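Can't paste images in this forum, so I'm doing it all in text. The chain is below; anyone willing to post the predicted structure tokens underneath?
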Amino acid sequence: MNTVGGRIASSGKRDYADRIVGEKLVHFDDLMTWGQMAGVLGPAEAPVAPRHAGPLLARAIAFREALYRIAKCLLEGWAPPEADLRLVNREIVTAESHRRLTFSHARLSRTWDDSAAPERVLWAVAESATVLLASPDAASLRQCPGEECGWIFLDTSRNHARRWCQMRICGNRAKVRRFRRGA
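Text version of the structure:
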């Protein structure tokens, strides 16, 4: 959900139609780089752009936006849009259709049936999103109030009072703005 530079409220109040500031998934390689940074792909594992790289990137962005809107709805207590639930469910079904148990070194492990598929990045996101959004942990989702942030994060603080996605960035910026205004 946070593969954007930030989100700005399109009206006076944040809603799930927030405007994106700084798209980070511009090219197929950006998606593969994110997959490596997120630990979905190994350092030397990023697939070469397939001929369907453009549609796969568009699919990834549509999936991200549906997940964002669903998470935002959970934060606000709204019912998620049916179209978003359908899109996410399609990605979940696709991901699950590629899950396999394999036996190696005297143990079973969960693997993907096509470990070289560029789509594997989306499969891992679908799997993680399913686990998080349907768990009690979903109640700990928060949205950063930073002026040009709006990132969704999981508040794992002891008292569940975390406000900023990253205190050293958004929190400090807010403190500096308050200081400059004399508040």
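The beta strands are 4-8, 19-23, 99-104, 107-112, 141-143, 152-154. Helices lie at 28-37, 53-76, 82-97, 120-133, 167-181.
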